[in-house]
From TrEMBL:
Keywords: Oxidoreductase. It comes from Halalkalibaculum roseum. The keyword Oxidoreductase applies. Pfam families: adh_short. The lineage of its organism: Bacteria, Pseudomonadati, Balneolota, Balneolia, Balneolales. This is SDR family NAD(P)-dependent oxidoreductase.
Length: 255
């Protein structure tokens, strides 16, 4: 496959694990320079060391919470060149409680991370893209952005918001050469369920038992494919399931 990405600066949020880490590695293989952010400094530095050594690229790191708008701005100001591709990957689910019994703190964390964090990075980076008439914003959504399910009222709402933001951003940038895309995965075996169940390993493991879930690399390959299309091609969204899954709540598991 032709490499149309070499030399571009790709910013990946939530790059310390899962889809974000896998995405960073694939762009590094395509000889992109990287700006990676996340809350875990040690993991960022380890990934930076690995990718710079293996692929002879530059990797800039920012250890901060995407909810901290000032920290987002400071990180972007520290970069030596404009961002060509923004992968808004940072996001999480907290809890599976019904709307009448859920934690306000969990709601705030999801809304501030999944919606406001994504909006902050998009707001800070797209003016430069618009000035250059070039760039690509890729948002990591979810099947939860297309279907709601019990116990997911706020998480599903945040991912519905990501879908709306993606579509509206494309329309805001109508007439420019900037591309806007989204990937909407189903069940991906990452740290997602560990976070959702607040460290309950046994409960998290049950989510992925009895079938073959998607992997972080499966989704990263789709993100990379979308970014590597010719400049006149804009893939707006892809819904991606493991074969065993047919909807947000329909998963066939072997006994």
């Amino acid at each position: 496959m032709k490499n149309r990405l070499q030399g571009k600066l790709v910013l990946v949020t939530g790059a310390t694990a899962g889809i974000g880490e896998a995405t960073a590695k694939l762009f590094a293989e395509s000889k992109c320079n990287l700006a990676i952010s996340g809350r875990r400094e040690e993991r960022l530095q380890s990934l930076k060391k690995e990718l710079e050594k293996d692929f002879d690229i530059e990797v800039f790191t920012g250890a901060f919470d995407i909810r901290d708008r000032d920290a987002c701005g400071e990180f972007l100001e520290s970069l030596i060149s404009p961002v060509d591709i923004l992968v808004n990957n940072a996001g999480l689910a907290k809890g599976v409680d019904a709307v009448y019994d859920a934690s306000f703190d969990d709601w705030d964390t999801m809304i501030d991370t999944n919606i406001k964090g994504l909006l902050t990075m998009t707001r800070l980076i797209t003016p430069s893209m618009k000035q250059r008439n070039s760039g690509h914003v890729i948002n990591i959504g979810s099947i939860a952005g297309h279907e709601a399910y019990p116990g997911g009222s706020v998480y599903c709402a945040t991912k519905h918001a990501v879908k709306a933001i993606t579509e509206a951003t494309k329309k805001d940038l109508h007439g420019t050469e900037i591309r806007v895309s989204m990937v909407s995965p189903g069940l991906v075996e990452t740290e997602f369920s560990n976070v959702r169940f607040k460290g309950d390993e046994e409960r998290a493991e049950k989510v992925y038992k009895g079938y073959k879930a998607l992997t972080a690399v499966d989704i990263a390959e789709i993100v990379h494919f979308i970014a590597n299309r010719p400049m006149h091609v804009n893939i707006m969204d892809t819904i991606v399931f493991p074969v065993a899954q047919s909807s947000a709540s329909m998963v066939h598991k072997e006994a």
